Amino acid sequence: MSGKGRGPEGPEGQLEAEAGMDTSPDLNVTSQPSVSWILPGDGDGTGDGSVPILASTENQGTDTEGVNVASEFLDDGAEDTVLYCGCMYSEEGEEDEEEAAAPQHQVQCSEANPNPHLPDEDRALEDWLSSETTALPPPRWHALTALRDRQLGSSARFVYEACGARAFVQRFCLQYGLEGHSGCVNSVHFNQRGTRLASSSDDLTVIVWDWVHQRPVLAFNTGHRNNVFQAKFLPNCDDSILATCARDGQVRVAQLPALPHSRVSKRVAQHRGASHKLALEPDCPFRFLTSGEDAVVYAIDLRQDRPASKVVVTKENERKVGLYSVFVNPANTYQFAVGGRDQFVRIYDQRKIDERENYGVLKKFCPHHLVNCDSKAFITCLVYSHDGTELLASYNDEDIYLFNAAHCDGAQYVKRYKGHRNNATVKGVNFYGPRSEFVVSGSDGGHIFFWEKSSCQIVQLLEGDRAGNVNCLEPHPYLPVMATSGLDHDSKIWAPTAKATTKLVGLKNVIKKNKQERDGEGSGHSDLLDSHMLSFLMYHFTRRSHPLHPRHRRLRTPPGAGVLAAELAAPGAGVLDEESDESSEDSDESEEEENQDRVQCLPS
Fold first, then answer.
1. Beta carbons within 8 Å of 503's beta carbon, 6+ residues apart
2. What is the number of alpha carbons within 13 Å of residue 528 lying toward its C-beta?
3. Residue 575 has what pLDDT?
């Protein structure tokens, strides 16, 4: 849970459905009881308007005393209190777990029976990993206290507070995958109420999921000509507007209720290079920002006849800096941060941009050891914390760094998160928790890392992707649930339903492998010729193989999508709108022109 949005207040109704636990046999899934998801504001269920919870289906229809939440204390060295997420267990099960729950060490020593006489290589690895870390803090949330307060009516935000508990994070496990795309899933995004999930893919489609029932409710061809990198619901519009950006540089907007009767979507901006990220303004249904590898940031205002206006061109020493990420400060929507093909995090204020003075930059940050580093480290993703006071930046083949957004220009980072690897794709990073208590990132090899933010300690390691890379991590707006995507052709849903905390088995070996591979390659950038060739081949291959090419006009209908998706897949449904048709030649020229002078990362 990123903390960027709060749960809705005064929901009109609730949706209650049982979510299955089926998943691929290729992934290790912790054994767990079945769970019911109770969501507000969608469906015909009844409820008292309180914040939704996870409820066990094992005990439904039986006489139970108390609430549907069981808790126990585990001695993890910090007197951690653990909440079973809406799951009731027998006394025998609880006793078995108490016997199995051994004290947890810091992650550097999480392997069983640590050897005091380590080889020099292993000792150097542990010294590197333990530097710039501190001991895990005591838990800030206690199950019994919170349950008592809720029963007495003095805790109106029980679930909101519980979502930031370390006990939840340490019990995360895979629930199921949402299968429907025929290509890599590049992004996932929950709507404001958390009842729908949008996924975008290399197959040029977006699927809107009822993620609780594991079924698509809408699938449509976006009108893009190349890999769709991101799709996001605009807030406060009743989920009627969805914005997308893609490798073809186009930024498009789809009016979802009109899709069965209209021609796909409308192009609102065109970058001269790939556009990787959109940045929404909190609570604003008609404005957002977009950035591209052409170094340009556009402001999109859907109320205008010409929605796109150029905000700034990012430069350093008269050289354009291609952008991979943009994010609006949730506490001050005039300010936004960008990151891309150099080592600097840049913050702009739309009211004060003067490109003649410091290229319009308000302030910029960079880890001091990377300022003049020969490795050419660059930023693949950055995000603000829930209150806009902190900035998190993930560097290609380097670590993740936390900056204090209030610090002066050029200030050093305040925290550093180690152990993962960000090399093969343009990976995302995110905060998790209502107060941004955790940092979460994907990694080469298909793993998902959770760090406790204040101590920089790894508290969870998950196997997230068979194909080897997890690129996007999207916390639910107000439930202890997370969606992820990567090179696999499905989106995955995670929740804290494991009976015991993760033992972090194999963590040391994963970190060792990541560190050795990173040190062995010794460069953040791929070979220039290889990158040019990759970009060229990807562009032409996707043009000829994806549905919008004349040979493949039909949309592949995902299983269970029903009549609506079939209608969208009919002849003519995938045709671009007139505005996009007029600009298609310009788009091709700009894409090929940009390929001549850019270093392209592997496809995200």
1. 110
2. 4
3. 32
